[in-house]
Amino acid sequence: MQVLTSNQIQTVAFQWPAGFYSDGIHIGLRKAKKDFGWLFSKVPAAAAGTYTTNQFQAAPTKLTKTMINQDHQLQGLLLNSAVANSCTGQQGWENALQEQQWLANKLAVDPSLIGVASTGLIGAQLPMDLIKNGLPQLTPTKSDAVTYAVLTTDQHPKTISVQCELSGHLVTLTGFAKGSGMIHPKMATMLGFVTTDAQVDGSVLQHMLSDNVDSTFNQITVDGDTSTNDMVVTLANGLADNPSLTAGTPDYDIFNQALHLVLSSLAKQIAADGEGATKLVECNVTQAATRMDGQQVAKAIVGSNLVKAAIFGEDPNWGRIISTIGATDAELDIDHVDIAMNGIPLVADSLALPFDEAAVKATLGQSQVVIDVDLHAGDATGQAWGCDLTYNYVKINASYHT
Amino acid sequence: MQVLTSNQIQTVAFQWPAGFYSDGIHIGLRKAKKDFGWLFSKVPAAAAGTYTTNQFQAAPTKLTKTMINQDHQLQGLLLNSAVANSCTGQQGWENALQEQQWLANKLAVDPSLIGVASTGLIGAQLPMDLIKNGLPQLTPTKSDAVTYAVLTTDQHPKTISVQCELSGHLVTLTGFAKGSGMIHPKMATMLGFVTTDAQVDGSVLQHMLSDNVDSTFNQITVDGDTSTNDMVVTLANGLADNPSLTAGTPDYDIFNQALHLVLSSLAKQIAADGEGATKLVECNVTQAATRMDGQQVAKAIVGSNLVKAAIFGEDPNWGRIISTIGATDAELDIDHVDIAMNGIPLVADSLALPFDEAAVKATLGQSQVVIDVDLHAGDATGQAWGCDLTYNYVKINASYHT
Q1: Cys-Cys with B196: which of A226, A263, B125, B173 at CB 3.0–4.6 Å?
Q2: Inside any domain, residue A219
Q3: Measured between CB atoms, which of B86, B225, B324 is closest to A225?
Q4: Cα separation values, A222 from A188, B99, B304, B390, Å
Q5: Is A106 annotated in some ligand binding site?
Q6: CB contact under 8 A, B304 and A225
């Protein structure tokens, strides 16, 4: 993939791509905060999605996946927080279908062009009266209100807008996500959405999304729990009027990098705002035997409770890092592993280096901690993001769910 | 395996089997507590071991494994806490060999009959002068002092003695272990030791140990981190003079069940005394498709941070349990999973049951929480043990290691 100069892809102020509208309102699912919203394109959009691998896939996730897989087209999405509509049986499935039908009626489109997404408490049914009453209140705005309506225990909305030029056509990509948190009861029901006015075939978009999710959303961890509702959906409505994207062209590479930028930004925002987190932790693995090894090692390190607690305590405890590396099945040269934290080398050839502990401890007080691991086993790399393990994580997740 | 009546295997007060001696003293590795000890049999014993799968296996673990694998014979073990002698390179290996030689000299036996075990800080070299000076102070006692000398952040020693009769010969099995904790720096360097005066061939003993460790020590988790020093060693010196054990005989079954009782008791004691733990959590999975499925699901549940935090908060949050089940690759009938906590049914056929939340919450305040999961997918079972995730876990593991 070509390396892009910064003027080819630019992060811009939050804005929706041409033809996308949305809204976010409060209908009483949460106590006072926004809890219900929609997002739609004025024309049908090419659609791609990636979904949780949890065997208990929630009804809205299953429905949206089915719609997208039919012909990779979607026009609108109905979104809610507070109730995940997961483990809700036949009633939950019928409620998801009802939501789909209601939004199809409102937009006057075929139900097959409508998806739904929910996040919140597992096992509770959606209060369909509140949703039915809320639907007429949704208006087509260009505001960012919908990015608030999907939040649960998140501290901030996660958003990014980037622009690039494809064959002389200005293209905008705008993404938003909800992270790990909840009101009731703190399931990491992660949702991500990317909209763009680029013109791209649905199956091409699906390939690009799946490929990029592997190295972004699939490489973050807050607590190691894969929820029943996780989903990342990308809609491309083509209104930028660029020539449709084809693999191997410069336009494809530019758009793919812009998409990667959006997805990795959202992923990092989710990790940094993990439940109770005070720090974003990034792990970069180099010289791995394979990409899978690199990604596995990076994710194991940012996922280790012992490493996470040490980082909360600003403790350069590299023994926990090397032990975590050794507990993976990645190919290792066990006498030649190097570790650095925030650029300060701690371990060379698997042995302790002398280092200025006060200096390392001081850098670990920053809001971002970077762990570099060199495996000396090949030329592949891997990257992952997580957060520290804090008193507040335990507090948030120990409180009673009713 | 036949079901034994309680009078065939009895738990008795702590005592060493015939011919075993030990001691535990303070030599300055820790500030004030016992940190150094030995354990030996007056005659060579059949020996079996299981060892960490971590690729960075510590020097003492590697040395003891090599000795046992030669001919399944061992006579003595030198033990220390505070320094794990892990990731210590050639110097660490030579130090382990030196310890072995010193103890061989003291016992006047061949070094191939000596093992060593260390637990504590990764990456630091053993202070060999302290060990050399400490060795002459070790005396052959029948006390339980050695069970203290291996502890780090453990709150209590973990011990058990059981007796059974094999063909008219009284046989004693005594086990002890150290759990998850540390002084410096809190690695879960788990060590377990079982001594017995039973007569049993080393390879038979190895088979029994490996088989029982799978369903006991390998089914506990405190924080999901596999250390570099984990090891369980069993010594059988034959002084009970029973006919040597052979598979398929009643004696074999009795001894095997006694061994299972010792190992599962030590494993549960480690889980209950996990870092910061206030509760032992036991998960029993029934009607799994395979034993591996049952064990995987049970271990995933007791290992989930979200489940562990909910149990600390006395929150019957079954959504986290079912989500954890779904995140495994166990064969599931996703519409027919049942969940109960402390005997109170919460979920039937994967759907919420009405339950008295105050009553469930009250039972979750007890020091032991039992989660029962019925997968309706076969006739295999699985069991695992863990503990809750508490403020104190974070506190213990966030403190600076120097």
Answers
A1: B173
A2: yes
A3: B324
A4: 8, 43, 12, 17
A5: no
A6: yes
